[in-house]
Amino acid sequence: MKIPVTFTLNGTEAAAFADPGQNLLELLRRGLGDLTPKFGCGQGTCGTCTVLIDGEPQLSCLILAETAQGRDVRTTAGLANGPELHPLQTAFMEGFAAQCGYCTPGMLMAAKALLDRNPSPTRDDVIEAISGNLCRCTGYEPIVEAILSAARAPRHSTGRPA
Amino acid sequence: MPVEFRKDLFADERDDNLVEIGKPHIRQDILGHVTGRSPYYDDHLFDGLLHMRCVRSPHHHARIRSIDTSDAERANGVVRIIRPSDVPQNMNTLLALLNFGRDDEPLLTPEKTGYRGEPVLAVIATTEAAARDAVAKVKVDWEELPHVLDVEEALKPGAPVVNATYPNNTFDYHDRYDHQKLRFGDTQAAFTRADHIVEGEYQMSPIEQAPIETCGAIASPETNDRFVCYTSTQALFFSVAVSAKQTALPSSRLHFIGGTVGGGFGGKVDSHHEPLAILGSMLTGRPVKYQWDRAEEMQVGAPRSGERWRIKDGVMNDGRIIAREFTGFFDAGAYTRLTSYGVQKCTGHLPGPYTIPNVASNTYCVFTNRTPSTAMRGFGITGVDFSIECHMDRVADAVGIDPIELRILNAYRDGDMKAHRRTAKNCALIESCQVVAQKSGWALSHDAMAQSSLIGGGIGWRGEIPETVIDFAGEIGERRSNWIDPEPYAGAKQRELVAAGTENEHPATGNAPQREDMVIEAERLGFKVSDGPPNAMPVPGPAPATPPAPADPPIPVAPVPAGTVPPPPAVPTPLNGTGAPRRSTGPGPSLPAAARGAPQPPQPTPEPHPPAPAPVPEPALGTPRPAPTDTAPPAAPDTAPAAPEPAQRPPRRPGVSRFISGPRGRR
Amino acid sequence: MLDVVTTDTLAEAAQSMGARARFLNGGTLVMRAVNYGDQRFDRIVRTREALDHIQARGDRVEIGAGVTMAQIMASRDLAFLAPAARAVGGPAIRNMATVGGNICAPHPYGDLAVALLALDGQVTLADGVSLPLTAYLSNRQGLIRSVSIQRPAGDAFRFRKVSRARPKGISFLSMATHLNRSAGRLSGVRVAYGAMGPDPTRVSAVERALEGATLDATGIAPALNAATEGLNPPDDALASSWYRREVAPIHLRRLLLGEAAR
Q1: B593 phi and psi, to 5 degrees?
Q2: What is the dihedral of CA A50, A53, A58, A62, to 10 degrees?
Q3: Most distant CA atoms of chain B, gap in Å
Q4: What is the pLDDT of residues B285-324, one digit of tens each?
Q5: Measured between CA atoms, how close is B28 to chain A, in angstroms?
Q6: Shortest Cα distance from C5 to chain A (angstroms)?
Q7: How far apart are CA B459 and CA B592, in angstroms?
Q8: Which of B180, B513, B566, C175 has the fewest C-beta atoms lying within 10 Å of its C-beta?
Q9: With an 8 Å Cβ cutoff, is B208 touching chain C?
């Protein structure tokens, strides 16, 4: 039996039918066509499916889809404002903070959660914030640098949605 | 972390006025990455997508008595079960495309499994969960067999036979030996005059590539009688060819889309997902996805092979290594993927970046009841390099000299002859050692700091192929019926001499793999071979033999001014501003440095390599040596590809699957 | 086909449980099992009842079973427990993983439960029955409503997680202790280990050896000798049984003496 689920996805109302036991990652990808969160492990190890639930990073592969009912869900698809990239996206581009790109959506969401809460993080704060996100191309250094540089970017204070 | 470019090194061999290289650039694909829009294979949506999961062996080694799929067939959402008999060409080996090795691995295994996780059936269902539930309902009656998990245990007579195609548990090299040989000079004579013998054993575990995107493929029928396949492969043309072979479709009917890979590192070469997904699509007429989960990626995904190495060095009191022998074991797991090739790659790398006048190796590609092993970042090289560098430290300790100085003393220099009979060029180990020492505050002698890769190489014995002692021990099956030790020359009933300067193609010396082996078998790619006159691709002939270098006496060490490190010496060869390989003097090996009139810089006194009495071959002189022609790898000019021509139909304009609803506005 | 049952209260949820049901709290364990097609259950039970209270009462604090690791880290009343909560997963996991789930987590998980054991954890179940955490861990029967722990004085509570990767890696060993001292001697000390057996456990041999001892290198020597007495540490992908036995006394010494890890 399909279960109707409605929530806010990147600021817009979204509705889909979930299968019993279906996780939010599958609902976002196949049900709503938001392909930005990725499947990497299905067990909470890799972090590439990270989305923000009511502003906090959570792992969409471990969320029972129907429990997203009424929540505020944000994904990488909602980071840019039209053609205008979020400062984190710009910093990742300029700082070569992605190789294969598969961990990038999760890294960006983990980093956004950090900067939303702490606009001036230390290096240790950044490392802690992405400690649940694996990058197998081992590009951690440029990722940490990019997040720090996005935090310093002037647009940071204005460029993000509340 | 800022990169420091050492433009002072080899400055005259390089054009630094480059437009792109050395300057930061924004990658062309990064906008897709940071917006989450890069189209990985699973980022394509299909209406009515089916999901495939495999029934896998829970045992290291087992025989299938029977399989009962009746409950699974009745389970919710199950559309089709694929059995081994459904696979048009079930047996394959990845490198069959290069005529290297025999088909030894089924896509789905019918009778006997050789590793834990080996697939025996594939279940296709409407959801992933339904496919998982159905897989759990398949009842397999397993008969567990004795297994072998250690490479040296697997070589022993009486070890369980892992892979029926290779009943001796070893990959066959040159259709003759159970290992890959390398013979250069005479290690055994050199050991007798060495001041020290240093031996060590080293081992490296398998390493999983662990890409964040697990391996997978989605296949779907297209309206133009083709199948589209979106895949995570990092070797698209391997995957096309393997799929064409195993599904018995001409490759012109396969429309492959890849190129966006969520991390590969060698683990996305093996091409098992594509043929299975296409087969599923052929049998159901619907789009089918076959994706590993993380547990499968770790357990079933082929890692870098585990390796064990034994190294024996003959070393003089001053640190010069005059002989080195290797005995190496690569754990291929249950089937041949790319480890068989890794062994050859490895053999071309021995004895590491050091100029050693006598080298021998026996390297084995061994089948065990472990997960098959394949490519991973420098496979064939990393494990033995780890072993060599551990061993260099051990040598330094045994002889009592500084470990970095030991490396500089023995390092390859431009023009030196390598053990696999190619001339070393673009060497940089000496400079790397010097920079590392400087950066880490490690004190080196002035003499060591004064050395250069550009000078002293290729002079006298350093540039020559020595007279070489070969043996014929370890023929296929010999070890299993009548045990002989795996070390080089062990159990040799017969030895022969190969004259100095012979750029040998004989398998008993170890030949360079990049020649006749690299012949494409066009039919396997789905191309029809023309019946007309062979339109063979020119196969490069052997490079011209190295001209005999002047037999120089040892070069005296020039005094080095104390205190400062001299700048890199000028190289008399004309500057090459085009970035072409340095010292290139046309095709073939470059001339020894001496022949180019290089200044005589300080360099270690080379091993004089006395014109020793030619080693007397071991008895059995009367035994006829098999004619080399019997054992030479088959050159197959007549099977070289004609101009590619589709086997069945001319290519049509690519169509769009009626099943594709398209990436919903997110491309 | 999976069946999801959502109830208004925890008591109702308890009624809906059964041998083939799993209770969903933060989801980090149950959803993982769902994703991997675990055939041992076909029903998920969850409740709308909020179980996220943190209540300090006297020298004890009661923590709702639905409190997440992140909520522990944000609570002033539970500042002493923050290092143990922070040892669990990365930030996203900590926003999801709950106290109740951690107590029920199989080896090698359950770092927080180790801390709760050292803090004299008492579990209250859905039906209001209370029992010691040690007793609950022996069979894990019943849904947890809350757990009550002792609020430690000063530096009496210590926790240490040992893993191969930093900052986030699965424990191959975790340890917690509560050190009661009177007149310079230890008394009523609690020591608990994680990842050294099938479940987090109190280590009675070490606790006995510390009774009446002084908290210094000489005083704790007998406890270090008894560090793995009565335990049968597992062999797994993270560490061998042998390795766990070898390193346990070293980490126990560092824990007891407050030495920094090297």
Answers
A1: -55, -40
A2: -90
A3: 87
A4: 999 999 999 999 999 999 999 999 999 999 999 999 999 9
A5: 10
A6: 10
A7: 6
A8: B566
A9: no
Interchain proximity A44–C24, CB inside 8 Å = no
Q: Is the peptide bond before C233 cis (omega within 30 degrees of 0)?
A: no
How far apart CA B262 and CA A101 sit, in angstroms, is 7
Q: Chain A window 52-91: which residues touch B at a Cβ cutoff of 8 Å?
A: 75-77, 79-80, 85, 88-89
Contacts of residue B295 in chain C, CB cutoff 8 Å? 36
Q: Provide the pLDDT for residue B545.
A: 39
CA distance B599 to B593: 9
Q: What is B170-212 written as a DSSP string?
A: B--BTTTBSSEEEEES-HHHHHHH-SEEEEEEEEE--B----S
DSSP string over B104-115: -EESS-SSEE-S
What would the two tokens of residue C223 be?
Answer: 């406890």
The whole-angstrom separation of Cα B599 and Cα C24 is 78
HSE of C73, CA atoms in CB hemisphere, 13 A: 17
Per-residue pLDDT tens over the stretch C59-81: 999 999 999 999 999 999 999 99
Number of H helices, E strands in chain A: 5, 5
Nearest-Cα distance to chain B for C237, in Å, is 12
Output the six-digit token pair for A140: 């951690």
- Per-residue confidence (pLDDT) for residue B198, from 0 to 100: 98
Mutate to test the interface with B, among A136, A137, A141, A149 (most CBs of B within 10 A): A136
Place of tokens 């299905």: A42
Contact flag C95-A128 (C-beta cutoff 8 Å): no
User: C4: how many CB neighbours lie within 10 A of its CB?
Assistant: 21
More confident residue, B490 or B504: B490
Tokens 């470990």 label which residue? B403
Among B517, B521, B501, B520, residue whose Cα is nearest residue B509: B501
Q: Regarding beta strands B254-257 and B227-231, do their DSSP bridges make them parallel or antiparallel, or are they unpaired?
A: parallel
B255 forms bridges with which residues in the sheet?
B228
Q: Do B77 and B284 contact (CB within 8 A), yes or no?
A: no
Contact B364, B178 (CB under 8 A): yes
pLDDT at B504: 62
Closest to C18 in 3D by CA, of C8, C31, C3, C36:
C3
Tell me the C-alpha distance between B126 and C168, whole Å: 37
The pTM assigned to this predicted structure is 0.85
Mean per-residue pLDDT over chain B, rounded: 82
> Residue B22: its pLDDT value, please?
73
Q: For residues B371-385, b (16+ Cβ closer than 10 Å) or e, as one string? A: bbbbbbeebbebbbb
Do B50 and B287 contact (CB within 8 A), yes or no? Answer: yes
CB contact under 8 A, C37 and B76: no
Whether chain C has a CB inside 8 Å of the CB on B139: the answer is no
